[in-house]
Amino acid sequence: MDIAALSINLNQASLGQSVSIALAKKTMEVAQQNNQEMLKMLEAPHPSLGKSIDLKG
């Protein structure tokens, strides 16, 4: 294998690794945003809670 082919292979591997890392970071950011939204939703009061009374015995 010559130097040029080795250099191309090394650059392709580096690019692949960079893309994988960027994708993982983006996935983590989206998951964190989803978690924050879910926590906000859980903290919000239920829209129908306390609006009615069950009078059936």
Helix and strand arrangement:
Elements: H1 3-43
Structural write-up:
This protein is an all-alpha fold and 57 residues long. Helix content is 72%, strand content 0%. It is built from one helix and no strands. The longest helix has 41 residues, at 3-43.
Question: Could you name the key traits of this structure?
Answer:
57 residues, mainly alpha
What profile does the largest beta sheet have?
none
Rounded radius of gyration (Å) = 26 Å
What percentage of residues falls in helices of 4 or more residues?
Answer: over 70%
Q: Mean of the pLDDT scores?
A: 90
How much beta, percentage-wise? Answer: under 5%
Distance between the termini: 86 Å
Using DSSP, what is the number of strands?
Answer: 0
Low-confidence region ranges: none
The gross shape turns out to be rod-shaped
Organism: Metabacillus bambusae
Protein name: YjfB family protein
InterPro entries: YjfB_motility (IPR025906)
Short description:
InterPro entries: YjfB_motility (IPR025906). Pfam families: YjfB_motility (PF14070). The protein has 57 residues and is an all-alpha fold.
